[in-house]
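Researcher: First entry.
Model:
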Amino acid sequence: MKRMAATSNQVKRDIRRRRGSILVLLAFLFVSILVMAGLVVDVGMAFVRGTDLQNAADAAAFAAATMLPIQVSTSEGLSRQAQAVALVEDYLSKNDDGQSVLVGVDFEDTFTDDAEGLLYTAVRVRLERPVQLLFGPIVGINSRTVSRHAKVRIEAVIGDMKIAPLGISLERREATLEGENVAITFDTRDEEVINGNFGSLDLDGGGGGATEFFDDYVNGYDGEIIFNDTDHLIEGQTGVLFGKALDAFETRYDACTHFPAQGGCTLDHYVEGCPRIIIIIIHQRVTDKPPHRYLPLGYAPYILQKFENKSLYVYPLDLRVNVGKTQQLTDMTYDFGLFRTRLVE
């Protein structure tokens, strides 16, 4: 009996020891699970902060891109770079909680323009911010730094624009931009006029005449135009169209409702999308005898400024749009001042 009692006591002591070991193991597992859960929370919090930082970088890069294109290594270019950086800093000061740090604003993707030389066409904004961890200190990690960047590029618009059935030569555009008077006029005395077509183009090749020309001028041509392809030339519009051109011009000019105290949109102040802003074909003539045919090189935004003495006056713009097919500006691309900003990184 004594032997049996001793055995029973030994078993009880073994059970108590094992029970204590299990409790220690469970406590260790509980702490480990708690630490892991805490680290998951910290990782999630860092992810959220990273998402917020990315949104800030995207918006700041778009703000800086309003200064593009920027000349490389010129006093004006350096001034525009400084303005771009100031726009980023201004955005962060007004829309951030003060924790984000501006690491840098980089200007990239150079493009050679015949008139302005080497240009930057993209801007990259780099941000970072510290994230204080809630559970990381348990394992000796108090904080981590989240870094994000965004790159915005301006690109040449090459499609899906409402184009007016008017055209000017590349040489004429460049000559007017280099001179003091940058207006393009369309009238019977205009050197752009050939056989009375007043610079007008038959964009669809159907020869629709005055009625079609008027509609395309007022509403914009919505068909496809192939650029820089000798298999897709455009013919000059034939017929007496100047009266229709004046009527269409007056219709679009009077449709402007902006800046009523200043007489509507002008070269000095305008609203994107205003009826006075028209898109005009830039081309090269490839035939010497009628019917004249043109190679379309691209198109450019102009603003209808005035009409007097039966002449139309339009002025070139640098215009950023949010529609249209685009391609990256390269040394083989004609830059006619019609851009779209796009987030590329």
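Researcher: Second entry.
Model:
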Amino acid sequence: MIPARTKARVLVVDDSLTMRAFFGSIFDRAPGVEVVGTAASAEEARRMIVQLRPNVMTLDIEMPGTNGLDYLEEVMRDRPMPVIMLSSLTQKGAEASFQALERGALDCFPKPTSENREEFTRRLSALVVAAANGSARSARYAKDHPARAGGSHHHHQHPPAFDWNGRIAVMSASTGGVDALLQLLPGLPADGPPIVISLRIEPELVAPLMQRLKAHCHARVVLAEDGRPLRQGEVQIACDPGTHAVIDRWPDPAIKLLRTDPVNGARPSASLLFATAARTAGANAIGAILTGIGTDGVAGMKVLHASGALTISQDSPSCLVDQAPAAARAAGAIALDLPIEAIVPAILDGCRAADGVLA
């Protein structure tokens, strides 16, 4: 039996009358979404939360009085719910957006332009509905992990030397992926297996993410480059919205970047990455599908699973958005469903040379 969908009851918080009207028009056309109120300030929003009991909030970062970041912390502490942040496209706005994710926001979007309003509307509406229907978990995460607010990420002790058996790992993430990678990647040793990650992220968040990963990780973390070999001790992150990353050749695998159309609406496509890992490496690959909205990666994970590769999903309680991992589990493509803190140990166990290098 398919469970009934919960209506998204959205409170829009933005000091711009134009933006409040724009969001109202978006949500009025979106099935399963109701705007229960609009607020021009954090002070007004405090009263409306009590009166209207929304289950999702959109929040502008740049507001007079109590700014969006400070109010986000207040909401996460006192009345936790999924919060989607809106920001400017400036460098300062990018850093503030990243801080919002660190403080518990579900996602952060740059405010729309005339060129991208249709795509913005589609993505925001889908995320709001997901948030209201229990597959988004940002509020519970912030409540359970207050030490992470403001960018306080645990720096793992230096892992012991790693004896690599030749396997590679491929991973994917979208909504919630910033938080997932900041938890996962510091646990990798400096000489761990090669890893390629397909990450769908707003372009302005790439620089602050890479800055933090490089500061907290023992492994080298780099942006994927066309033709770059997969190297022991290196993580390549493919997040260019104009290209797909695929695994090219075996042995001596390398990244190939393809400038082709989106696959089922996704670029980079996790399914393409997974399917090419299956074709080239087969059982010498490990795949992991992390937090994310939609079903990108599911088809490719099925191919990986059929090839004999170990396949892993991030479990629902540790996901910020569980749609993609849940779809992979429902498709029968997953061998191990693990909490986020167990994923790196499982990958390392699968890539450790207990029985020598793989054929």
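Model: Note on the second entry: Residues 138-143, 145-152 have pLDDT under 50 and may be disordered.
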